[in-house]
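Lecture notes, structural biology module. Today: joint structure prediction for complexes of two components.
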Amino acid sequence: MTGVNAAGFPILSLLTWLPLVGGLFIMTVRGEESVVASNARWAALWTSLIVFAISLVLWAKFDISDPGFQFKESLSWMPEFGVGYRMGVDGISVLFVLLSTALTPICILASWDSITTRVREYMLAFLVLETMMVGMFAAQDFIVFYMFFEGVLIPMFLIIGVWGGPRRVYASFKFFLYTLAGSILMLLALLAIWYRAGTTDLAVLMQTPLPVGMQFWLFLAFFASFAVKVPMWPVHTWLPDAHVEAPTAGSVILAGVLLKMGAYGFFRFSLPMLPQASQQFAPFMFTLGVVAVIYTSLVALAQTDMKKLIAYSSVAHMGVVIIGIFTFNAQGLQGALFQMLSHGVVSAALFLCVGVVYDRIHTRDIARYGGLAQRMPAYAIVFMLFTMASVGLPGTAGFVGEFLVLVGAFKVSLYLAYLGSFGMILGAAYMLYLYRRVIFGVITRDDLRGILDLSPREVAVFAPLILLTLWMGIYPSSFTQFFDATVHAMVESHTAALAAPKLAGIAP
Amino acid sequence: MNWTMAMPEIMLAVCAMAILVFGVLRKPDPAFLCTMLSLGALVLAGVLVLGSDVGSAYRGLFVVDGFASYMKLLILVGAGLSAVLALDYNVQEGISRFEFPVLILLSTVGMMVMCSASSLMTLYMGLELQSLALYVLCAFARDELRSAESGLKFFVLGALASGLLLYGISLTYGFAGTMQFGELFRALATPDGVSAGLVVGMVFVVAGLAFKLSAVPFHMWTPDVYEGAPTPVTAFMSTAPKVAAIALLLRALEVPFGHITPQWTQLIVLVSIASMLLGSLAAIGQFNIKRLMAYSSIGHMGYALVGLAVGTADGIRGVLIYMATYVFMSAGVFACIIAMRRRGRQLEKIGDLAGLARSDPGLALAMAVFMFSMAGIPPFSGFFGKLYVFLPAVQSGYWTLAVIGVLTSVVGAFYYLRVIKVMYFDPAEPAFDPRPASLSFVAGVGALVTTLFFVFPAPLVAAAQQAARVLFG
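The predicted structure, tokenised, for the full assembly:
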């Protein structure tokens, strides 16, 4: 262990491995099925709450003026290869660690009553998933990152496949194989970089210039992995399937955290390590981003399944993030990061909103609903707030990110900003259309007449998300300050890398 | 002449014969006792291997070095785990006879000789001893048609492969004038020493060894023999002999034929790619889990050969790590397969695993760990095996091999996932019979090693590194 970090203890390792310890504890629970289920729920909830409480130390002790990695830990792992167990967070990753630790207890609470079979395994899967997510965002070593990045697939595959809907097998296989195919190509890129640099320390790799010709291929390999994860059009098709079949909490974590892994990968690897190739590919990425924004928004407009609609809206929102990342200016990057965070909160909340009515009526067919405002006023208000946030109404979380990205896009090209802003218009169209069909109108179906409003547990689930959405919308600086320094340092080093004389190697 | 260099082999052979005599004289059939004695002999051999000196003996026919010791230990582990697997299986199948552990010991002696072979003649002796004992083991369930068929098939095809190998050896001897590895190496150092006949001989040797390794295109026997042989024998075949064959191939190609690398590299690249492709694609259509594992082993040998194709010390190190992770995964998988027994009947269909996660969560978890690991998903050991063979491939610019390798591993992931799907997603079938402690032990050891490998990879990696350097001494 090199030195003591700001927290005074190896906080990132604790955050990473504590959920797993909780999971192992859950595995030892024995007894009658209902007792086991109840104990597993409580143990999982407490574990995740404690992890969240510890993660708040990151929020408090993070030095916002330092653009580099903080809370560093380092242990010898495979020294002859330059691979170490290195952990650390910088401005880009710190908030995603917090997002992961915040969403996990919400997910566990959200599945309190809706999951009735194999509860112990379910809770175990979520805690393992938390370990993988936190570990991935906290990794400061390429191999450690890759282990967690791939490891996420295992619990998620089981969550979709065991507790999912009727087409769960198809969806889980598609999810797994799509992502595996992408990330295994990244592994080859990783090996090439590893061989060249002799280390897998990310802090060192970011300073290691790579030949332009090599960057081209590496970018494509990274693209294969991250584009699937984001997901970008046209490799997004696994997402609607996975979302529709996954249980509510699975969708929440998928939209809230797992979709951020791809964009995070672009931030962490493609941009700082492959500056020339990123610049070269920017028009390509813009095109895919714009197509995602417009095309998937139109597709969302035509959906009859609530979850599918929100899934497509996620693809559109992540398209905005991609546009932001490849503007290479501070506004664009900050906007992209903010959009990732706000999407993490808002889309998670929207999937929870779907879950609320799905738990009661057991259908996600939009046509089956209507007039819920009469019976569920509190639900209507909550749903309204998140609909507005998804549309990007000023004062909610969704606005700040999209606005900053569009400012960044304007600096690059007027047309890009113009096409990108279509997303906001179409977003308003499909979200309001959804809201009108579900909430407004008159109740025509008998089963809806007896529907109950939010239970205290559901209020407890939504309350933190509402608070976050408004906080992020009204006072975004408390979040942007975390990544301000890092983003500016990134922009500077990117500009410097492009200005530097071209390195050896010829771009194909 | 320093005959003590071969102490572990001699000790093991003497033990095998002593146990045989003991088994014949003692009534009733002391199968359990003989297995325990054999396990003791294997452990003793392991201790002797660990304590053995480095050097060569029998006028250079036999060599003991770090590489041989590493491989021998793996072989002993594989043999030991298989012997444990057979304990209760043989009783349940009514084939519990004392010859079983003795044959495993004899086969192990053959494999250890293969690891230490430093001459084409020693190589052949070891290989034949190993194979003959295996042929008998395959047909061990002599009242069962499939087992007899498997033994016969293995014997006929194995004899053919031995013929190829012997022909290759004779060509090599004829053109180089020596069979000893060191002298061959020196003879081939000059361009004059390399003749077409010699290269043809080398190709035949590789073909013979590829058969033992069940690498494509010499894999045809594998699915049938795997399916027909008693499952503990299948477990044995898929662990120890594979390690021995890889050891032999590595040493034979790197040491005597070290100067004609370009000639054999193309061959290994081709075999490797074909094995990876066939191993992943042909397995998709399988419903019998033993056949599935047969194709899976073909694929795994393809991955291991990637390291050999690269041919550097790093590549060899990758192969060694790969084999170590593979032995534990494979033994564990077969422990799970043997546990598939309902109302006294052994089951082999993948569909029989349906709902195992509900009826036996522990077994399902172990099987899932092995499947994820074989698919190469981190943090399990199978991922590191692949990592260490693909790293040198990328370093040396073998991009074709690396890209085909990772893509076939995605295809492979499909059928491994299907096993997990059957266990976890499908509605439950009636539970299996309670599993004997021997199976839990092997599955547990395999699962623990596979899961926790990532915590302390350094010792194994260092050992493999040291072993690999020996060949390039």
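Point to remember: Residues 213 and 245 of chain B are 6 Å apart (CA to CA).
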